[in-house]
Amino acid sequence: MIDTLGAAHVTAAIAALALGLVVLSAAKGDTIHRLFGAGYVTSMLVVNATALGIYRLNGQFGPFHALALLSLGGVALGTFAVLRQRGNWLVRHYQAMAYSYLGLWAAAAAEAVIRVKIFGALASGPRGAMAIGVGIAVLFAALGYLVIPRLQRAALGAVADR
Question: Which of 1, 23, 43, 132 has its CA 20 to 30 Å from the CA of residue 102?
Fold first, then answer.
């Protein structure tokens, strides 16, 4: 069960990374953006649902499960903003999805760092792995705080110029 769950989690995460890159590269609001965006949302639902079922690290609910819930909330917020299209929906959609994608990269980076033998030694045991993972999440959140507003201005400015 866990092997199947883990395989589904990794497969969906790789799909979401690829689909998210296409969405970022596509013109905002066009058919490719919408189609691949729907694929990204679906992949992220699988990523987070499977993450909530993985308890290999310490056998109980932990910070990675909390981050999965936060990610689910972000994807839901971005999706509902598009579906409702009320108020400042485009900004809410952009920010929610941008942070969702950034969080996905943070999770991939944390997984890679923990699996590299040199850093893996620092993560001796569940507490070390959690500390590294949460530290990387905080680092990526700070990076997003600095970079996403600039990218948002450029992306939404291009939408307004059409």
Answer: 1
- Over residues 27-63, the pLDDT tens digits come to 889 999 999 999 999 999 999 999 998 876 566 777 7
* pLDDT, position 161: 57
Dihedral sign for Cα atoms in the order 85, 88, 94, 97? negative
Residue in the structure block whose two tokens are 């040199």: 118
Residue among 89, 80, 74 nearest 20 (CA): 74
Rounded to a whole number, what is the largest CA-CA distance in the chain? Answer: 53
Whole-number Å distance between alpha carbons of 121 and 149: 36
The label of the residue with tokens 């990374």 reads 17
Q: Cα separation of 18 and 15, whole Å?
A: 5
